[in-house]
Amino acid sequence: MLSILLNAGYSLLEERAKAKCTKETCPLSLSVYGYLPNKGATYFFLVAFALSCIAHIYQGVRSRSWTFMIAFGVGAFGEAAGYVGRLLLRNDPFSRTNLTIVLVPGTVAPAFLAGGIYLTLKHIIIIYGRKFSRLAPRLYTWIFIFADIASIVIQSLGAVIASRSTKVSPVGNNIMMVGLCSQVFTLLIFGLLSLDVFLKIRSFQGQWNESTLALRNSSKFKGLLAAIVTAYVTITIRCIYRIAEMAGGWRNPIMQDEIAFIVLDSVMCIVACLVVNVWHPGFLFQQSYATTKAERAGAVDGEMVERA
């Protein structure tokens, strides 16, 4: 996706280069987005994502949830960086540099947010009981994080191929589209597997892990589950929106609709970041590790008894 946006956008900018377009000499309709980003909305989301990033770093250090901190910290930072680019576009909507600042972080950031969500399923399964999962809990992390990284690598490969030509590269663009579609596909598969786990857990309520009863009954755990579902839904909506935005080609009506962008991109991503700030999963990770340690200790004790 990044390659499609960058190269198509650059192509338009290069076509206007001879005319030396500026905000004063050319109409906004000739710019990439066809509008100047709303100043108030841009500042709001820039500050919101920046504060969310700081909060995620603090919460991650405090709870020692390093991988999750990297995922959501980088994701929120990338979103904030994208809004810096949108502010710069207000000054020069024809700038190739400003366009790059908008597109690069904004394309990569949601993949990191999705990666953070993938990390939680393993721990939720451990809290309820490993028997409710078709796969070993650790496999969910490996499979989906690998798929998430692969999506980013594919998009980066497409960008490299496309960047070797001054014109739009069909090969690079196609590779980028594969990367974007694989990201949405991964989200959907994750949702289906999570639903499968949920249905199994609900069907066998009397067999839940007794050692985690107090945690499961706590309001913070229930709030976290709701937050994870909310973050998953909002990020999925955002990714589907970006596919629709690109499907109509560069400068199509969806791409030039700032309200649609704010509602289906900006709002979706900030909701995902903030709900996880409010219900941070640090305590979930700590309890999950403690439960795993206790289970291993119990298994060792049981083995020693059998040998005796």
What does this structure look like?
- The protein has one domain: Rhopdopsin 7-helix transmembrane proteins.
- The chain is 79% helix and 0% strand.
- It is built from 10 helices and no strands.
- It has helices spanning 2-17, 39-63, 66-91, 96-128, 137-163, 170-203, 213-217, 219-247, 258-278, 282-307.
- Helix 4 packs antiparallel against helix 8 (219-247) and helix 6 packs antiparallel against helix 8 (219-247).
- The chain is elongated and about 75 Å long.
Number of domains: 1
Instruction: Output the CATH class name.
Output: Mainly Alpha
Under the CATH scheme, the architecture is Up-down Bundle
Q: Tally the beta strands.
A: 0
Which structural class do you get from the secondary structure elements? mainly alpha
CATH overall fold name = Rhopdopsin 7-helix transmembrane proteins
Structural Rg: 22 Å
Shape: elongated
Sketch the major β-sheet.
none
Helix % is: over 70%
Query: How far is the first residue's CA from the last residue's CA?
Result: 62 Å
Mean pLDDT: 83
Provide a count of the helices. 10
Low-confidence stretches: 162-168, 300-308
H-E string = HHHHHHHHHH
How large is the share of residues in beta strands?
Answer: under 5%
Subcellular location: Membrane
Membrane topology: Multi-pass membrane protein
Keywords: Membrane, Transmembrane, Transmembrane helix
Protein name: Sphingoid long-chain base transporter RSB1
